[in-house]
Amino acid sequence: MTVTVRFAPSPTGKLHVGNMRAALWNWLYARGRGGKFILRIDDTDEERSTKAYEEGIKRDLEWLGLFWDETFHQSARFPEYDRVADALREQGLLYPCYETAEELERKRRLQRARGLPPVYDRAALQYTESEIEKFRAEGRKAHWRFKLSHKPVEWNDLIRGATSVDTANVSDPVLIREDGMYLYTLPSCIDDIDYGVTHVIRGEDHVTNAAVQIEIMRAYIAIKGAGALPSFAHHSLLIGADGQGLSKRLGSLSIEAMREDGLEAAAITSLLARLGTSEAVTPEPDLAKLAASFDLSKVGRAPARFDMAELEALNAKLLHETAYASVAGRLEAIGVDAALWDAVKGNLLRLNDAAYWRDVARGEIDPVIEDKAFAEAAAGLVPDDPLTEESWAAFADAVSKATGARGKKLYMPLRLALTGVAKGPEMAPLFALMGAEKARARLRGERG
Ligand code: GLU
Q1: Which of these, 430, 416, 408, lies nearest to 367 by C-alpha position?
Q2: Measured by CB atoms within 10 angstroms of the end CB, which terminus of the chain is less buried, N or C?
Q3: Which H or E run contains 73?
Q4: Which atom of ligand 1 has the smallest separation from the CA of 42?
Q5: Ligand 1: does its nearest atom lie under 6 Å from the Cβ of 45?
Q6: Which helix (H) or strand (E) holds 201?
Q7: Model confidence pTM above 0.90
């Protein structure tokens, strides 16, 4: 059996860390088992789905390295869904309902007032011919519900363990709206069977859906005379560092926002792969290694915390360990060579911050001079080119002797004058890279 998974976003918004964690886990699960990763675009809602969101989703997945083996759109499969819907109608498993949204809301309110769960009362199964005629005469169109068994549905969830949902407590799901639009449920069941999906890995907000879908899938497998139920794995959802759900901040937590902010794809995958599992989060740019260690049995039940500060720290750690060759293209684009990269990478929060140090080493910056006399004296002591990594210690020593300054009083004004800022990488390699002429000019307060 080939492990086959799918990531099934609706192209009605941007991917955020929560969806991306589900995508990544599916991808890692498949890759670690020689399996197949399908990208399914759940675009049955033709009003809310856009090409732009779909392209954004694909760009995000590609940026993170989560390439798919196959992709398809639900909107291309309406004839298949229609055939199955007809077969379900014939069996009495898909039945027409004529209540308006207001009428349904009123029923739910009454049920709640009586302390009953707001489960659909199946009034539509009792309609008489004349009632149906009356609805039609009023111009009402039917929406269609699937008739659940009202029995417990049990499965061994690969994360939650033995799981049981009694469908007597669940409203018969609407599969087709009155305007004819398919909601995601029926297409998803048909697709999972037709595409041989073996594992459905997704958030635990879909646990009740799983029970419903298992019943629909069973009905479809009987109609088709082929196919097998997938295994299910429902993971807990991410919460923010403050313990609240992520939904309020989803804009800033979109993968696109993180890319635009200059974060590394590998920092995101390193964190999301392990967040909520028993494995420690470490910077791991190699997705194959993350895949090899990914295992659903290591996934915990508690909600996992997503903390931007943790991602930022991981990003920095990852950069510190990044060899020039693996990011050469991006560094060449901002004029950073291997020597400069090695000199500054240990100090970066974002790769693009290397551009500032490029200017320190080879371009122009505004020096900060606090004590003119001290800086003048230092300028006179800069050794002649070529400067090497050893030159710095000798220079600082000479300045100390000439001015009497030591420790922070010696190093801080030199750093401010030579780099323009109070913090940064080791001075020795930077000093060698900038050379004597720039160093002297900056100590004299000239932009250079
Ligand atoms: N399109 C559905 C969603 O985004 C897919 C859920 C599933 O994985 O079955 O919620």
Answers
A1: 416
A2: N
A3: strand 70-73
A4: 1
A5: no
A6: strand 199-203
A7: yes
